[in-house]
TrEMBL record:
Entry protein name: Glucarate dehydratase
SUPFAM superfamilies registered for this protein in UniProt: Enolase C-terminal domain-like
Family matches, as InterPro entries: Enolase-like_C_sf (IPR036849), Enolase_C-like (IPR029065)
Classification of source organism: Bacteria, Pseudomonadati, Pseudomonadota, Gammaproteobacteria, Enterobacterales
Pfam families noted in UniProt: MR_MLE_C
Enolase C-terminal domain residues: 3-66
The organism of origin for this protein: Salmonella enterica subsp. enterica serovar Inverness str. R8-3668
Length: 83
């Protein structure tokens, strides 16, 4: 099943019809991708991401979404430091 908006995402999760939701920041935005990661955490799912552009800004976006979600759920995200 595919989910292209929040209503559909809710249905796919409640019906258990998705194994790995894609939290692509190009589609959901960065804030939306973090929310997808939160929903996956709540439902015990692993989230993934896919893009045909894995360089430069795209790679940075994926990395930031991962780091934010990791910090939210484990408290082990990288911390910003002043140098």
């Amino acid at each position: 099943m595919i989910a292209t908006d929040w209503r559909q995402m809710g249905h796919t999760l409640s019906l258990q019809s998705v194994d790995i939701p894609l939290a692509d920041p190009h589609f959901w935005t960065m804030q939306g991708s973090v929310r997808v990661a939160q929903m996956c955490h709540e439902f015990g799912l692993t989230w993934g991401s896919h893009s045909n552009n894995h360089f430069d800004i795209s790679l940075a976006m994926f990395t930031h979404v991962f780091d934010i979600s990791l910090a939210m759920f484990t408290g082990s995200g990288r911390k910003a430091t002043n140098v």
